[in-house]
Records
---
Amino acid sequence: MASGVTVNDEVIKVFNDMKVRKSHRSPEEVKQRKKAVLFCLSDDRKKIIVEEGKQILVGDIGDSVDDPYACFVKLLPLNDCRYGLYDATYETKESKKEDLVFIFWAPEGAPLKSKMIYASSKDAIKKKFTGIKHEWQVNGLDDIQDRATLAEKLGGNVVVSLEGKPL
């Protein structure tokens, strides 16, 4: 059942910025690109919004962020649901790839009401994220901490490295 929750325009803007990899961006613009971002429900639970301060920029990697995937996992709240976008960089035996992954985070410790509204609002945000190839519902840290699980979602056993780290 749909929840009637709407998606804030800023969420769509963030998605479009992450989806389009412009080759003519300056190095400064590339650094401002989001590597990962979390979305949450507004306080009145009527809109999906960009969660303040819950993002990783490409420019943070190698500076304040050593491992972007581990850093992303740490952004997730242990006791509430979220939606996330993660721009995964990985290698198969044939080539290097980049894909956006839509993550629905619904940990076991989240309140039932929160799980229900996030689950029933998921289609609203997914409809705005056209062209997403990978969707992943995660129900706890055990499911997401091991980068091999994400690699499996991205391409099964053909993925040999994720974020430059061998699997």
---
Amino acid sequence: MVATSSLNIKNAACISEVIQQRFQHATLTDFDYWDYVVPEPNFNEMVFEEQTCLSLVRMLESCLSKSKQTKLHCSKLLVPEKLTRRIAQDVLRLASTEPCGLRGCIIHVNLETGNVCKKLDKIVYDSTVVPTFELTLVFKQDCCSWPSFRDFFPRACFTSSSKRTLILSPGFRLIKKKLYSLMGTVVEEC
């Protein structure tokens, strides 16, 4: 199939003349149509989502801080920059399709070290809402950076307290389980 035009346009001046004619025939209501079709961004919603994300980041950091001495038995816990922020954004994305959103979420926080997965804590964003889904967050220990770094220095540089430093990997895993659905478990690894 070949599309043809009845207009015979030979230069740029003719093209601009045709465009000008079409704009003169357009009425203001033709242009106003897109004001109603394309919604304006809701800045209040964007601010609320940012506040929710920051609140979730604080909850994750608090969970890691409490677990540092109680469950992990380490003196220092090194977390990659913006890791908790990335996790919070992914949690919000997964919660956005749920009927109660983040309010209906329980987050089980775990740490994977080698082949062992250790339970750290449970985060309930809103305890007044019946949970509709669970997220299992699995932090991963960074096994590669610290031991290889230690090989460059003599043993005298590292005391026994330095062995209790735990470094988290920038990777993590989120597993979503809907509690009231026939769809079952949705696994997403980040």
